[in-house]
C-alpha cells in the first residue's frame, strides 16, 4: 500500500521519475497546506522550479521539460487531476482531488428558501429598487421621530442636586499644572451657602433713617407713575431665590402690574456682583435668571422685613444711607461665562546639551532636537551605538546578535533534532544551499510573522546557530541574516582555489598599499556612488573582483569578527536576471575578494569590458551591474589553451563596450602568442612579473626598456592581480631598476643593468 511518501506512479520509468519530481515540487510550493487540501500548479511553473539554478534538473530547458511533465502527470490520473488553464491538482497524501463541482452541493435555495424563484435581470433590478425605496422611507421616518424634542418636565420643586454644567470647551489633553496649596482659593460649598442664606432670612431688618424724605419708587422701569402712600397697597415680598440665580436676578420684580406692587421709598442699593473667586462653572450655571414665585401678600406694616432676604442675599455689607432718591429698578444683564485660562506650555529656555565620549574627543548633542536629527549625524550615531554596545557587553544578563539585544533568560533553546532539520532544509535543492532566518522560521518551525513570540524566537535561532560552528556558517549582514551549511558556498568557485586567490590579493591589506590606494584612488569614488570598472584577464578567468578601498565603501562589512563571508546579489538589467556572489573577507595573510561571477564574465563579457556597479535601495547586499551593448565585433583576443599550456590568440565575437587600453588584441600584444605561464613561485614576485611585461610591450632605448603605464597594466594582470596604485608605487622607486621617465608623463624605464643577481 502506498503511503504519503511512497506513491506508486504509473507509466514508463522516465514518466514515473518526472511525476515524482512534479509531485515534490508541488508539495514544496504549498508547504503550509493540509494533507488532504487540494494544491495546484501548472506544468510550466513546475518546469521552472525544477530547472532553476540549484534545482534537481538544472541545465534542462523549461520549455522542453513542460510537455514531458504534462504527459507524465496525465499518465498518473490517480495522483494528479487536470483542471482548467493547464493546472494540475493533487494533495500531499498523493490522491487526486475532485476539481469538478458535485451535483448534490447544497445551495441557499435548497437549505433556507424552498419556494424562492429565480428573477431575470429586469425583475431583479426592480426588486432591488423597491428594497432601496423601503429602506430610505424607513430611515426618513426614524429621523423624523428622533428630531421631535421631548418637552422638559416643569416642577416647582427644586432639584435635589445642582444640574450638570456642560462647559463650552473640550477637555484639555495637556498635562495639568500643579498649583501650591497656599494659592488655591476655596469656593463656598452648597451647604455653607444654604446656611448663610437661612441665617440672613431669619435676621431682623435694620431700620434705615433717611436724611431727607424719601421719594416713592415707580412701579415699573419703563413708565414711572405718581408715588403712592406706603399703606395704599400691600407689598409683595420676594421669594427667597436659590443662590445660583441671585447674581443674575433683578433686585425687585417689576415686569407685571398683576404680580408686583409699588415698593416703599428706600435708599437705593447697589446691585450685587458675583464674587471675584467664583468658579467659571458656577457663573455659567447662574447666567439664567430664576423665575420669581408669587406667594400670599404680607401685611403692609412690614415692607422692610419682607425685602430683607433679597437684600441680604444680594450683598453681604449693610446698606449705607444716601440723600439721592432711588432710581427705577431695572433687570441686569446675565453674566457671561469666563473663558478658562489655557494650560501653561512648558518653555525651554535653552538647549539641553549632553557630551558623548568618543576616541576623537567628546561630542555634544542637544536633546531638544528630534531623535531623527540627532541620529542623522554618523559620528553621534556611532558613539551612541558604541555606548549601548559597551553597556550590553558588560552585563552578563544580556546577549547580543548584530544590533539586537535580548535578556539571556528570555531566549529559546533548540534540540539536536531541530538543528538536524535545519541542516536538511539547507541541503534541499529548492533552497540552493542558502536560507534566511525568516525562511527557517516559516518552513522548519512553522512560525508566522504575526506570532507574539516571533522576534524572540528568531533572535534565539540566530544566536544559537552562531554557536554551532561545525554545522552552520553565518553568511549575511545585520539587515539580511543568511545561513549556509558549514564549509559550503552557493556561489561558483574560481578556476584557482579560493585560498590561492586570497593569497594573490593579500597585498590589499598591506598598510603601505592602503596609503598608496588612498592617494591615487581615494578621491575618485565616494561612499554610495557607482563604481566604474574595467575587467582584467585574471578577474575574467577566475570570475572574481578585488575587495579594495572602492568596493569597501559600498559593500557591507562583517557583522562578527570571525565571519568568513557574506552573500551578495547582483542584478543584471541587460540580462533580466540575477546571480549570487560571495564576498570573502580578509583573514590573516589573505586579502578579500568577491567570487561567483564566472558565468557572467565568460558568457557575456571579454577581458577589458567596462561595467558599472550601483548600490540599490532594496538592501545593503543587493547591487545592480550594468554594461553597455555595442555592435558586434570580431577580433583576435588572448586566451589560454589548457591543452598546450600556452597563451594563444583566437577570433572572438563580442558586442559590449570595452576599454581600448585593457583589450588584449593580437595587434597590440602580439608577443604574448605561444608564451607560457609563470610558475607559482615566480608569479607572486613583482620583480619578475613587471620585467616580463616590459619585455612584451617595451621599446629599446639606450639599453633600457621604455613602456607606458597603460600598456604594462593589462599584461601584469595576466598571472596575478595587481592594482594600479600598487603598480605605480613599484614603478616609482620601490626597485632601483624601475624609474619614471621625466620627459613623458605616465612612462617608465626598466634598466636591467641595475638589477643584481
Question: Can you count the beta strands?
Answer: 23
The CATH superfamily of the domain at 498-631 appears as DNA-binding pseudobarrel domain
Oligomeric composition of the shown chains: single chain
Q: Mind summarizing the main beta sheet? A: 7 strands, mixed
Tally of helical segments? 22
Q: Based on helices, strands and strand pairing, what is the structural class? A: alpha+beta
Strand order of the largest sheet: 11-16-17-13-14-15-12
Please characterize this protein's 3D structure.
The protein is built from 22 helices and 23 strands. The chain has 757 residues and is of the alpha+beta class. Among the domains are: 78 residues; 42 residues, no CATH class; 81 residues, Arc Repressor Mutant, subunit A (Orthogonal Bundle); 134 residues, DNA-binding pseudobarrel domain (At1g16640 B3 domain, Beta Barrel), CATH 2.40.330.10; 80 residues. A hairpin with an 8-residue loop joins strand 14 and strand 15. It is extended and about 135 Å long.
Q: What's the gist of this structure?
A:
30% of the residues lie in helices and 15% in strands. It is built from 22 helices and 23 strands.
Comma- or semicolon-separated keywords:
single chain, 757 residues, alpha+beta, Arc Repressor Mutant, subunit A, 4-stranded antiparallel β-sheet, extended
Amino acid at each position: 500500500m502506498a503511503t504519503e511518501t511512497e506513491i506508486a506512479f504509473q507509466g514508463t520509468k522516465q514518466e514515473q521519475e518526472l511525476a515524482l519530481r512534479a509531485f515534490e515540487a508541488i508539495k514544496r510550493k504549498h508547504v503550509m497546506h493540509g494533507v488532504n487540501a487540494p494544491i495546484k500548479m501548472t506544468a510550466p511553473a513546475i518546469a521552472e522550479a525544477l530547472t532553476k539554478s540549484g534545482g534537481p534538473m538544472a541545465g534542462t530547458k523549461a520549455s522542453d521539460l513542460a510537455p514531458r511533465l504534462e504527459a507524465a502527470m496525465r499518465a498518473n490520473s490517480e495522483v494528479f487531476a487536470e483542471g482548467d488553464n493547464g493546472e494540475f491538482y493533487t494533495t500531499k497524501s498523493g490522491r487526486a482531488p475532485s476539481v469538478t463541482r458535485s451535483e448534490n452541493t447544497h445551495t441557499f435555495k435548497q437549505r433556507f428558501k424552498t419556494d424562492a424563484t429565480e428573477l431575470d435581470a429586469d425583475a431583479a433590478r426592480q426588486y432591488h429598487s423597491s428594497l432601496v425605496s423601503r429602506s430610505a422611507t424607513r430611515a426618513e421616518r426614524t429621523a423624523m421621530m428622533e428630531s421631535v424634542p421631548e418637552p422638559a418636565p416643569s416642577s416647582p420643586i427644586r432639584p435635589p442636586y445642582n444640574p450638570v454644567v456642560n462647559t463650552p470647551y473640550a477637555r484639555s489633553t495637556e498635562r495639568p499644572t500643579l498649583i501650591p496649596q497656599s494659592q488655591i482659593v476655596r469656593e463656598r460649598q452648597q451647604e455653607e451657602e444654604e446656611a448663610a442664606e437661612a441665617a440672613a432670612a431669619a435676621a431682623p431688618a435694620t431700620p434705615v433713617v433717611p436724611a431727607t424724605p424719601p421719594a416713592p419708587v415707580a412701579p415699573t422701569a419703563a413708565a414711572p407713575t405718581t408715588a403712592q402712600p406706603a399703606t395704599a397697597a400691600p407689598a409683595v415680598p420676594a421669594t427667597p431665590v436659590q443662590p445660583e440665580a441671585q447674581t443674575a436676578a433683578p433686585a425687585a420684580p417689576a415686569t407685571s402690574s398683576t404680580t408686583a406692587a409699588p415698593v416703599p421709598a428706600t435708599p437705593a442699593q447697589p446691585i450685587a456682583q458675583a464674587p471675584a473667586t467664583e468658579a467659571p462653572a458656577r457663573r455659567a450655571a447662574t447666567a439664567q435668571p430664576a423665575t420669581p414665585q408669587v406667594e400670599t401678600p404680607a401685611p403692609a406694616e412690614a415692607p422692610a422685613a419682607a425685602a430683607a432676604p433679597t437684600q441680604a442675599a444680594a450683598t453681604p455689607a449693610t446698606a449705607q444711607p444716601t440723600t439721592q432718591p432711588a432710581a427705577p429698578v431695572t433687570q441686569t444683564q446675565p453674566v457671561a461665562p469666563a473663558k478658562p485660562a489655557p494650560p501653561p506650555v512648558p518653555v525651554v529656555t535653552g538647549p539641553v546639551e549632553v557630551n558623548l565620549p568618543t576616541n576623537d574627543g567628546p561630542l555634544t548633542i542637544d536633546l531638544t532636537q528630534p531623535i531623527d536629527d540627532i541620529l542623522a549625524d554618523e559620528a553621534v550615531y556611532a558613539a551612541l551605538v558604541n555606548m549601548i554596545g559597551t553597556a550590553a557587553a558588560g552585563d552578563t544578563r544580556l546577549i547580543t546578535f548584530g544590533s539586537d539585544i535580548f535578556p539571556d533568560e528570555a531566549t529559546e533553546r533548540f534540540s539536536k533534532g531541530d538543528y538536524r532539520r535545519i541542516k536538511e532544509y539547507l541541503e534541499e535543492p529548492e533552497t540552493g544551499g542558502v536560507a534566511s532566518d525568516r525562511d527557517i522560521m516559516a518552513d522548519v518551525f512553522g512560525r508566522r510573522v504575526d506570532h507574539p513570540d516571533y522576534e524572540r524566537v528568531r533572535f534565539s535561532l540566530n544566536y544559537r546557530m552562531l554557536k554551532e560552528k561545525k554545522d552552520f556558517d553565518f553568511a549575511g549582514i545585520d539587515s539580511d541574516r543568511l545561513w549556509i551549511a558549514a564549509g559550503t558556498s552557493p556561489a561558483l568557485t574560481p578556476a584557482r582555489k579560493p585560498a590561492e586567490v586570497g593569497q594573490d590579493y593579500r597585498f590589499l591589506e598591506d598598510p603601505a598599499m592602503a596609503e598608496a590606494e588612498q592617494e591615487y584612488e581615494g578621491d575618485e569614488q565616494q561612499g554610495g556612488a557607482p563604481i566604474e570598472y574595467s575587467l582584467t584577464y585574471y578577474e575574467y578567468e577566475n570570475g572574481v573582483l578585488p575587495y579594495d578601498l572602492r568596493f569597501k565603501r559600498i559593500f557591507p562589512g562583517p557583522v562578527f569578527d570571525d565571519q568568513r563571508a557574506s552573500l551578495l546579489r547582483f542584478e543584471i538589467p541587460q540580462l533580466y536576471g540575477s546571480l549570487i556572489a560571495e564576498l570573502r573577507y580578509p583573514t590573516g595573510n589573505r586579502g578579500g575578494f568577491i567570487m561567483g561571477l564566472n558565468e557572467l564574465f565568460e558568457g557575456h563579457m571579454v577581458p577589458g569590458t567596462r561595467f558599472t556597479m550601483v548600490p540599490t535601495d532594496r538592501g545593503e547586499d543587493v547591487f545592480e551591474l550594468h554594461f553597455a551593448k555595442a555592435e558586434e565585433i570580431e577580433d583576435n583576443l588572448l586566451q589560454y589553451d589548457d591543452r598546450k599550456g600556452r597563451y594563444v590568440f583566437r577570433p572572438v565575437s563580442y558586442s559590449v563596450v570595452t576599454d581600448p587600453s585593457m583589450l588584449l588584441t593580437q595587434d597590440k600584444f602580439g608577443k604574448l602568442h605561444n608564451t607560457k605561464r609563470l610558475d607559482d613561485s615566480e608569479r607572486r614576485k613583482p620583480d619578475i612579473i613587471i620585467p616580463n611585461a616590459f619585455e612584451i610591450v617595451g621599446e629599446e632605448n639606450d639599453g633600457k626598456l621604455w613602456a607606458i603605464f597603460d600598456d604594462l597594466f593589462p599584461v601584469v594582470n595576466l598571472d596575478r592581480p595587481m592594482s594600479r596604485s600598487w603598480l605605480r608605487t613599484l614603478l616609482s622607486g620601490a626597485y632601483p631598476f624601475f624609474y619614471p621617465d621625466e620627459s613623458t608623463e605616465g612612462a617608465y624605464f626598466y634598466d636591467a643593468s641595475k638589477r643584481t643577481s
